[in-house]
Amino acid sequence: MTMSLDRRIHDQFNESIAAKQSALAVMAGPIVAAIRLMADSLRAGGKIMACGNGGSAADSQHFAAELLNRFERERAPLAAIALTTDTSTLTSIANDYAYDQVFAKQVDALGRAGDVLLAISTSGNSPNVIEAMKVAHGRGVHIVALTGKGGGAMTERLATGDVHLCVPAERTARIQEIHLLTLHCLCDGIDALILGEEQ
Predict the structure, then answer these.
(1) I want to staple 154 with a disulfide (CB 3.0 to 4.6 A). Which of 2, 36, 124, 158 is the partner?
(2) What's the pTM?
(3) Alpha helix locations (H) across the chain?
């Protein structure tokens, strides 16, 4: 049993390493574009809104916390909000309207032209994230879509000026691991553009 578990652990690590190397080859350029889009928005007085379901909801909250508080360097707070955290808002919208609207109605209320919506979905097919994207475009909000599995239906919802960060993997665990690394790259890059490179 121990040997079997040891092999499985090695397989998980090795698969994660290989997936990250494959992702780097295709995602580095789009990540740079996403960093610039987000940093420009923040410097102009805009904000980043983030949404997703399950593990992607956790990633939304993680990312918003890194911007609002700090990442690795001391700096002033940056305007970010996870649309996944207010249970009264989420449950009232889901109850009175539909679960598909839990993020869209928040974007409609809070989104302003020049803001950025970080739309996270491992499959690219989350209906409530897609609805939020539709509303975002109507409000003049740009989108950074963080997906996997080819991007799903979210790919068709992207407009000029949006950025698609699509992990070239099919396994959800690998996609989620690369999503977290991507979020840390975004945080680091935003800080570098706003604060300057570390000496």
Answers:
(1) 124
(2) 0.96
(3) 2-43, 55-68, 87-96, 104-110, 127-138, 172-195
| CA-to-CA separations, 40 to 28, 137, 182, in angstroms, rounded | 18, 18, 18
Residues in the chain: 199
Pull the structure tokens for residue 135.
């509303």
- Residue that the structure tokens 């040997």 belong to: 3
Model pLDDT for residues 9-35, shown as the tens digit of each residue = 999 999 999 999 999 999 999 999 999
Pair 142, 116: CB distance under 8 Å: yes
Q: The domain 2-195 is classified under which CATH number: 3.30.70.920, 3.40.50.10490, 3.90.770.10, 3.30.390.50?
A: 3.40.50.10490
Give the domain ranges of the chain.
2-195
Closest CA to 143 of 177, 172, 111: 111
Residue 100 is given by DSSP the state G
pLDDT digits (tens, 9 = 90+) for 156-181: 999 999 999 999 999 999 999 999 99
